[in-house]
Specification:
There is one protein chain. The chain has a two-stranded antiparallel ribbon. By secondary structure, the chain is α+β, with helices and mostly antiparallel strands. It contains 1 helix and 2 strands, in the order H-E-E.
Length: 57
């Protein structure tokens, strides 16, 4: 399944320390998803923003 991701490195580094400490991190996903079968495709917008708890260990 092909996947393309664009990451803002400033925010990635800013959020890396709280992630390693086990705190909640704001995850934001914005873009489009293209689904299809038999050469019939439909594009859907994706907008997600939510707090997620990550644990490094």
């Amino acid at each position: 399944m092909p996947l393309s991701i664009e990451i803002d490195m400033k925010n990635l580094l800013k959020n890396a320390i709280p992630t390693l400490l086990g705190k909640d991190v704001l995850v934001k996903v914005t873009g489009t998803v293209k689904l299809g079968k038999a050469n019939v495709y439909k594009t859907f917008p994706v907008n997600y923003e939510g707090m997620q708890r990550f644990s490094a260990f």
